[in-house]
Amino acid sequence: MTYLLGVDGGNTKTIALVADGSGRILGAGRSGCGDIYTGETQALAKIADAVREALATAGLERNALDAGGFSLAGADWPEDYEYLHSAMRDLGFGRQIVVVNDAIGALRAGADWGVSVVCGTGGATGAQSQDGRFWHTSFWQDGQTQGGMALQETALITINKSELGILSPTDLTPRILALYGAASVEALLHTLTRRHGDRPQPSGALSRTIQEVADTGDPVAVNLLRSYGEALGDYALAAARRVGIADQPFPLILAGGVLRHPAPLLAHSILGRVLEQAPRAQPGTSTRQPVEGAVVIAAEAAGITIDASFRRELAHTAPGDALFHSE
Questions:
Q1: How far apart are CA 299 and CA 268, in angstroms?
Q2: Which residues partner with 225 through β-bridges?
Q3: Is the pLDDT of residue 327 over 60?
Q4: CA 308 to each of CA 22, 33, 213, 303: distance values in angstroms, whole numbers, following the listed order
Q5: Which domain of life is it from (predicted)?
Q6: Any bridge partners for residue 135, and if so which?
Q7: Mind listing the pLDDT tens digit for each residue in 130-180?
Q8: Closest CA to 243 of 70, 146, 114
Q9: Closest CA to 285 of 120, 116, 130
Q10: Which of 54, 139, 293, 302 is least surrounded by CB atoms within 10 angstroms?
Q11: What is the pTM of this model?
């Protein structure tokens, strides 16, 4: 029997799945941040915690693993790949080890090739051609488009400007103040910037609030979200050009918690920008979790052909949403 390990390590959570060679999920585990840029020792410990939990629920030992696929935030530069590959090998997480950036794992969860735009707590954009070339934005992607955290920071700046009269009044202001329990914009600004005391951290609720307000037609929120989406679309186009598929009918996969919100403006803004220059792109929103892409990558490393049957089994046996939920 062939046994596969897939790991998706992000800034909010790390998910591990153990599967057999047919794609059937046997065990799952979850832990915290797996990004080595937040601290190598801590990130490796979280990855190991998630894997141990997945192995335990599968009733397997690590020496049973034929291949491990690791889709990781923080797999950015050659030295990162070398470090992570060596660490996963030393931990015994597969006789074959493949490490990719988390943008590629998200892509492979929904397609065999194409472009992925990931917008969760963090953000990433990746592309893979049919002949195996791949590229991801990593630090090429500016800090203003790095996922939900960047979107939330932009929204806070927006209500500050609105309060000062630089921007028009917006319904974002009372909604965000209510979310933080703040009496005024100045009180919120003070809370977020003061030298002493706890500084509340943004959460997924703020990203959802931004999209809900934009969905009502609030002009300031609409402009914020549209500009953000168009910027993400620019990076998607850049990724497609880097691997030579911009003129092909490539799958364009949108993934990540922020992009799963039912309000359509953000997704439509990304797609509109991409289709302006790459009209043959085939848009789609991935319903699969990025860790499933890591399992696919592990299966390929083990010599397994990824066909419709494998993907059906993977989808049919995948854990429920509770494992993946983030506030």
A1: 33
A2: none
A3: no
A4: 11, 32, 39, 16
A5: Bacteria
A6: 127
A7: 999 999 998 999 888 888 889 999 999 999 999 999 999 999 999 999 999
A8: 114
A9: 116
A10: 139
A11: 0.90
